[in-house]
Amino acid sequence: MQEHKSVEKRNRQNRKRNIRNTAKRSSMKTAIKRVKTAPDKATAAKELQNVLPILDRLADQQIIHKNKAANVKSKLTRHINTLK
């Protein structure tokens, strides 16, 4: 391991960012699970409205790829349309 101050700072920053990004990714997955496990179509549609901005925000922050956000939104919408 290098002993330069800049390397030590970079390592500190990377650790902080990793923790932050992991937490955001985890909350995204939890929100997606809420949509998938919703008991009826109305509840699922309401939960979807909570998930869409989260996905857009994470894509803007480059925590997830923009195409992944689009794919997840599409799959969740299709899932809701199949519910009765």
Main attributes of the structure:
mainly alpha; 82% helix; Methane Monooxygenase Hydroxylase, Chain G, domain 1; 84 residues; single chain
Description of the molecule:
The chain has 84 residues and is mainly alpha-helical. The protein has a single domain, classed as Methane Monooxygenase Hydroxylase, Chain G, domain 1, CATH 1.20.58. The protein contains three helices and no strands.
Gist?
With 84 residues, the protein is mostly helical. Helices cover 82% and strands 0% of the residues.
* Biggest pleated-sheet summary: none
> What is the total number of structural domains?
1
Distance between the termini: 58 Å
- Topology as a string of helices (H) and strands (E): HHH
SSE-based structural type: mainly alpha
Architecture (CATH level 2) name:
Up-down Bundle
CATH fold label: Methane Monooxygenase Hydroxylase, Chain G, domain 1
Low-confidence stretches: none
Helix percentage range: over 70%
Strand content: under 5%
Write the layout of secondary structure elements.
Elements lengths: L4 H32 L4 H20 L5 H17 L2
